[in-house]
Structure formats: structure tokens, C-alpha cells
Amino acid sequence: MKAIVLDQFGSIDNLQLKEVPVPVAGAGELLIKIENAAVNPYDLKVIEVYKEQSGVSLPVIPGSELSGVVVATGEGVTKFKEGDAVCGNPGRFGGGFAQYITTHQDWMAKKPASLSFETAAAIPVASLIAWKALFDEGKLTAGQKVLIHGASGNVGGMAVQEAKQAGAYVIATGSGKNEQRVKALGADVFIDYTKQDFSTAVKEVDVVLDTVGGKMQTDSFKVLKEGGYLISLIEAPSKELATQYKVHAKVVYGGPNANRLEQILLDAAGGKIKAPVDRVFALSDAVAALKAVKQAHPSGKILLRP
Ligand SMILES: NC(=O)c1ccc[n+]([C@@H]2O[C@H](COP(=O)([O-])OP(=O)(O)OC[C@H]3O[C@@H](n4cnc5c(N)ncnc54)[C@H](OP(=O)(O)O)[C@@H]3O)[C@@H](O)[C@H]2O)c1
């Protein structure tokens, strides 16, 4: 099969299109023919920033979010059969920038027939981490006020929709050109971070979702209510600031959750959740796709089509 292989950390230019063996489904695993793989900032970070510290061993095929069709099943598989359309996060780094992948049946969710493979590949990572951050960790409930940074991004856009549907009052940050798009997703207030300092415009927030880090994270302490939650997807917040402002603050990481994903996919199939796709690149153009993700101002998910 064709796959994009990384032999050396440091640069996305080290990626090469290669011919490699089709993997074999082990016990409990599915062999999936990939229809679309999503390209995420995490792929870039592992290749260029975390490198050896990521714990990923080389050579590796990046890509940890996909949709496709089950073409073979390993021993003991009970949840899926050949021909089933699925999507999800394979529960480890990598494997998605290829024509086929194996993954454990527990990490995949059934794709509703009315959702395209492109939309299905755009949903798992962003929707699951947004849900985990807002509700599992941030304890967000109806009537509370949430501030979502990077609301024009893939995770932020999912978070806006999930928070709004849960009955929260949603304040969103992003660049001005994205205001209408983010408001259409459900934001009550939009703050253009290129023009306005959110930390002087907002107060008494119950939950902050930080998808940006740095100063946006440290300034976020100032807008929280006592007892509020600052949940970062980027870096561990300062313990000293958390104590000073009397708030909960932590960094959280995502992973597969097939049961929750199936619910979110049904919401997407019913039109309650939108997962826009920015562009679809050929597998052989993976480096160009990663460059597009690196620009960090997408208007939806960047996908590959093997
Ligand atoms: N912890 C985890 O498990 C986990 C899971 C998923 C994602 N993440 C991380 O979360 C981050 C967002 O992921 P994503 O997929 O949503 O990325 P994305 O779709 O590329 O979105 C990036 C967002 O960041 C905003 N942005 C870019 N530069 C900015 C700046 N200088 N100041 C403020 N905002 C800025 C963009 O807003 P405008 O375009 O409107 O300027 C855009 O909304 C990434 O760093 C990713 O690695 C972590």
C-alpha cells in the first residue's frame, strides 16, 4: 500500500511517500481501508516539536484520525464486520496517512450512512477533546458562562457548538474575519483577539477552554469566577496563579471514546453538529496539507484522500 512515512524527526520535509506492506488485523482489530485521514496540529508537533520526547518510535506513518471501511477483522471482533463504515482515532499516534490501517475495534465508531466520509473524518478528535474539556473536566452546566479561545479552529468550533447545545452562554475568541462563522455555530459574543484584549472585556466566567496557550492562557485567570475551571489543551497552567485566583486549572489530553463519538456522529447526521472541511489533499500531497495546518488559521479540517 501507499503510505506517508517519517524516518527522521525534525521537519515535515522528511516525510516520504512509500510502498509498505498492508498491516494485518490482530486479535480484536479491524483492517480499515481509509477513505479520509485528518491532518491535525498534533501530527506537526510530534514531527517538529516533541520529536524523540513524544515516545513515538521511527519509522512511523503519522495521522491519528480517519474514516473508512472495514475490509477484514481479526480474531474475536464482535462489534464490526466487513463492509461497515467507521471513523475514529486509532488510540495511538499514527497510521492514518496511508491506504490501510489496523486499529482495535473498541476505538472505532459506526459512521451514520447520511454522513460523508469527509465529515466523519473531521469529527472525532475535535469533538471528543472539546467534550472532555468542557464537561468531564470543566464541569460546564446549563446557564454557566464559558470562554472558548480559538473558537474559529476545529476544536474551538466543536466546543462552541457543544457548549451552546448544553445551554451555556458562549463567549468566543478568534480573528475578526471568522466572527460570522463562529456566531453561526452558536457563540453569543465574539471577541477579535487581534483588536481587543479579552481579559478586560470579559468577567465572571465559569469555564475557560484554552486552545492557544501562552499569554492567552495566563490572562484567562483574570476572567474566571472564584471556583471556576481553566482547562488547557496546550500546556499545564501555573499552579501559583490557580492558587492566587482560587480556581481549578489543568491541562488535558484526548483519546478515543467510541460511545461518546457515536452520539456526536448521530448529532452531526441530524444536523445539530457541523464539522466543516477546509480542503482535501491527495495522500501524496501530505507535506502541503501539513503546511496548511501549520498556518493555524483554517476554516475547517484539512483532510487527506489516499
Ligand atoms: N490536548 C489535546 O489532546 C489536544 C487535542 C486536539 C487539539 N489540541 C491542540 O489544540 C490546538 C487547536 O487545535 P485545532 O485542531 O483546533 O487547531 P486549528 O483548527 O488549527 O485552530 C487554530 C485556532 O487558533 C487560533 N489562533 C491561531 N493563532 C493564534 C494566535 N496567535 N492567538 C490566538 N489564537 C490563534 C486560530 O484563530 P483565527 O484563525 O481565527 O485567528 C484558530 O481558531 C492545537 O495546538 C492542538 O495541538 C490538543
UniProtKB/TrEMBL annotation:
Enoyl reductase (ER) domain span: 10-304
Single GO MF annotation: oxidoreductase activity
A Pfam family annotated for this UniProt entry: ADH_zinc_N_2
Listed InterPro entries: ADH-like_N, ER, GroES-like_sf, NAD(P)-bd_dom_sf, YIM1/Zinc_Alcohol_DH_Fams
Protein name, per record: NADPH:quinone reductase
Organism: Niabella soli DSM 19437
